[in-house]
Structures are given as structure tokens and as C-alpha cells.
Amino acid sequence: MKLSIGIVGLPNVGKSTLFKALTRKDILIANYPFATIDPSVGVVAVPDPRLAVLTDISKSAKTVPAVVEFVDIAGLVKGASEGEGLGNQFLQNIRECDAIAEVVRIFEDGDITHVHGDIDPIKDIEVINLELILADLQSVSKRLQSVERDVKRGDKTARLEHEALTIVQQDLESGRFASRDIASLQLLTRKPIMYVFNKKAGGHNLDEMNDDRYTRLTEFVRGLGAPYVVVDAAIENELNEVSSDEKHTFRQEYGVLSDGIDDMIRTAYKLLGLQSYFTTGADETRAWTTKVGATAPEAGQAIHTDFKEKFIRAEVVAYDDLVSLGGFVKAREAGKVRTEGKEYIVQDGDVIEFKV
User: 3-state SS string over 72-140?
Assistant: First the structure.
């Protein structure tokens, strides 16, 4: 399942450093043929400690994680919707992604110039979001002009679309994100958004200094109903050069104890509406990606497209039950393996054997 999340933000907020930290992370297991697709697209493993546990139980020869695709999009500048900077190219790159990770700088450093001269995270978000709104407003206005001709000819479908477009136009003109999808348009303001607060070791980090700007920022983002994570992109990028045994020591020295990159990847995966189920055995333990709410046949397509049409049944055991009992065979003996049909909704962490 190929879904991608675009990394966006103003210039000099740490987008490219973050992208490098993501795509060079040592969780990229050699058994999976991925990493950087091209200089601006990378496929990254989703950190999931359950994989190692299942691999150990099954004595699997290899382990294959679920993945998520990130796109490093060029820095946005005010006026992008009018063609400033990379303008239309920037907006088209976002349009081709399924969700947005908006990077926001929360550190002060006189050596790294901010495009607006001062550090005001809320203002940065408002600049980017306004460009998304203005770009959508252009698309909606253009589409309205086209649909109006069909409405005058008495086309009922066109009339319904015109009504929806008018509502969205009112949203955008009021400075709000679109309140509904328009089938004929890939509206930027309808894409799920997460925020990545980028800090800097040794800098004046707003979250560490009890700075009122950080309090207002978190309240503002919560008001948008969006998730956020805190990352030190530069440190995480440097830690990619350090062995796993040394990372804890280095984190203590830098004062960065949590892995914000892992948090970001997991949050992005959920933002895309994705979840993982597992298959496990002597050959391999693998996490497969499916949409939340997928039926068993739909989820089985991740393994092979024939699984949807040729699906007979699925034998399912919850991850916790399988682990506590020590494997699929023992789980079956304990009556924890269920036989499920075509209507079964796959749950995150299910361990499944498909019968086709």
C-alpha cells in the first residue's frame, strides 16, 4: 500500500535534516529492499517492537517491517500560491502526497537565519496554512466557473457539485480549511496534517525554557485537532552514525533521551489511517500494512492481490495471546485462534494465516 506523507515548512526550519535523519535511520533492515527512492523520496521502516518478539518466538530467518513513504518538499515561502519561490511546483508536490508533516522551528539560534527574522511558531504555521488555503481557493473558484455552465444547462449532478463547491469556497474565504471533500479536486486543506516541532541541542529551545510561545503553540495546534511530536532533527541525524550500544550514552550527553524520529514515524503511520497485522513463521516474520477498518480479504491484498477474490477464511490470534502462550501452535491448543470470514475487520496487531 503506497501512501506518502510530505514534509513541508518554511526555509531553515530543518526539513532536509529531518528527512536525512528519517531515511538514514539504522532501523532500515537489510532484508527489506528500500531506503531512498530518489533524493527527495524515502521509504522508512515503522518502528514496532512486536516484530522482534514474534521473530524470537518463531525463530524466523528474517524480519520485515511495515514501511511509510516520506517526501522532502522544497521550502515554502509566503506568496507560493501566487508563484513565489517554487510556487506551483511546491503545491503540486504536496497535492501528490496523502498527508502533510509540517515542520515548525522552536529554537532560537543567531547563526541560523529565520526567514521572518524572529521565532514565532504560530506565525509560521499560519503562513503555510494560508498558502494552502489560497491555493485551494484558486482551484475551487476555477472549478466553480466551469460547473456553472453545466448548472445553467440543468445538469443535476453539476448543481450538487456547485452547492458543495460554494460551501468550500465560503470556508476558504473565511480563512478556514475546507469542511468537505470535492471529488474533482485534490484539496490541500483536506489532507491530514501533523506538526513536527524541531528543536536544537544547545540552542534556546522554547519547550525547555518555559517560553510562553511554546505554551501558546501547543494550545494552538490542539485547537486545530492535529497531532504533534517534538524532534531534534540534527541530533537524530548525528546519532545515525553512532552504534546502537553507544546511542544511550550520547543521548544522555545531548540531553535528548526520547527518540522523536520514532514518534514521528508512528504518528505519520496513524495519520495516514494505517495499521499493521503480522504473519510469522520459520522463514520470516513480517508486518503488513492495511487501512484501519479493512476486512480480512482487503487486508490480505497486501500479501497478494488474489487474496481478496480467492479468500476462504482467516485464522486469527491476537498478538498478546500469541506471545503469552508462546506461539501459534500453543495458541491454537488453548483455543485462542479464531476462524474468521470475509466480514471480519482486521485489528492492529492481529497475527493471521490466510486460507485461499
Answer: ECCCCCCCHHHCCCCCHHHHHHHHCCCEEEEEEECEECCCCCCCCCCCCHHHHHHHHHHHHHHHHHHHH
pLDDT in tens, 43-74: 899 999 999 999 999 999 999 999 999 998 87
List C-alpha distances in Å: 347 to 57, 126, 331.
21, 37, 17
CA torsion sign, 274 to 350 to 264 to 223? positive
| 354 closest CA partner among 322, 303, 315, 301 | 315
Domains located in the chain, CATH noted: 4-121+187-271 (3.40.50.300), 293-355 (3.10.20.30)
- For residue range 167-224, list pLDDT tens digits in order: 999 999 999 999 999 988 989 999 999 999 999 887 788 988 889 999 999 999 999 9
